[in-house]
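Hi R.,

As promised on Friday, here is the backbone we talked about, encoded as structure tokens. Could you run it through your design pipeline when you get a chance and send me back a sequence?
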């Protein structure tokens, strides 16, 4: 950035993705300094500096002050907005850069190093951009939060906020909760929760563990499998999943054994399961051929034949299994299943 930016001038990121300058949202009277996507037919503001203090005049200037701060000044209001840094270094060069990620960065260049003094990503408005984080800034102790505009002509703080809360708070599950204020009964109403249950979190029960929200515990191992770590399993930490109780018959027999001897593994059909990730599709539309393809391959752990989709086989751990009564597909898990 040059020494200053006045109303009518802009700064454009190196790749031409973002632009910084003065704007008035939806032709309102107030003037603000903001960052928006450059070149879009409709202006989408990603960040606003002076959210709570709009400018009314026409002599606004955004500049680097002699103390190193980035400030917005007006002839009627000496300092409208500032980065509010306490800088003590001498003989350094302060620069402002707008990145292609939409981050406005104030840097101090001294000797052979460049130090980030301040960045807009740590002071978001209503937009959560890629690579931006919310939570606690461990360096400054400030909470980084995203807050809605009051309305489409007023970017001052609105009624809705995205933020992290302490684990001892009322809502510590990690879910996103949409709530509506019931003015008549003076309380919040829970409208929507995402995810709805713990089983909706990816891979809750680990490899070869199936999840069912209404069960206690919610995780169980496939038949023929047992918890990899019983101590962790008993603590309610299921992420390590399950392992086979016994090797496949094809792993126990010699490669020179005849086909009949090597085909003693069986398949256990399990219905009502959401099919796991990382399947491999086979070009066959015959159920028995699908089964034989898995049986003839000792690395095949399971297969499923679904009408309209075809044959799917799994050669890796079965991940993200969830019991859903309405799910009609049946997965066939390969293995040796002793009676117990």
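Update: got your reply. Pasting your designed sequence below so it's all in one thread:
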């Amino acid at each position: 950035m040059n020494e200053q930016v006045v109303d009518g001038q802009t700064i454009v990121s190196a790749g031409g993705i973002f632009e910084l300058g003065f704007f008035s949202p939806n032709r309102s009277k107030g003037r603000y300094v903001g960052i928006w996507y450059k070149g879009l037919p409709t202006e989408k503001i990603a960040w606003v500096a002076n959210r709570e203090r709009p400018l009314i005049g026409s002599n606004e200037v955004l500049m680097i002050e002699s103390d190193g701060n980035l400030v917005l000044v007006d002839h009627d209001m000496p300092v409208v907005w500032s980065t509010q840094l306490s800088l003590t270094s001498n003989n350094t060069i302060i620069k402002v850069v707008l990145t292609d990620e939409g981050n406005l960065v104030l840097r101090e260049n001294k000797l052979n190093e460049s130090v980030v003094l301040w960045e807009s990503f740590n002071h978001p408005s209503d937009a959560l951009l890629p690579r931006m984080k919310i939570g606690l800034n461990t360096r400054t102790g400030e909470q980084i939060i995203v807050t809605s505009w009051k309305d489409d002509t007023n970017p001052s703080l609105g009624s809705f906020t995205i933020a992290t809360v302490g684990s001892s708070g009322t809502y510590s599950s990690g879910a996103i909760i949409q709530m509506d204020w019931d003015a008549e009964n003076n309380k919040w109403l829970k409208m929507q929760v995402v995810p709805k249950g713990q089983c909706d979190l990816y891979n809750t029960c680990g490899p070869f563990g199936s999840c069912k929200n209404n069960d206690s515990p919610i995780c169980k191992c496939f038949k023929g499998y047992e918890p990899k770590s019983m101590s962790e399993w008993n603590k309610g930490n299921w992420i390590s999943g399950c392992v086979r109780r016994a090797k496949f018959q094809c792993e126990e027999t010699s490669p020179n054994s005849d086909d009949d001897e090597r085909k003693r593994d069986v398949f256990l059909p399990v219905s009502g399961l959401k099919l796991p990730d990382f399947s491999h599709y086979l070009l066959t539309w015959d159920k028995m051929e699908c089964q034989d393809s898995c049986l003839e391959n000792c690395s095949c752990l399971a297969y499923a034949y679904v009408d309209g989709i075809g044959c799917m086989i799994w050669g890796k751990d079965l991940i993200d299994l969830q019991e859903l009564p309405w799910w009609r597909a049946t997965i066939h898990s390969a293995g040796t299943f002793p009676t117990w």
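One thing I noticed while checking it: The two ends are 74 Å apart (CA to CA).

Thanks again,
M.
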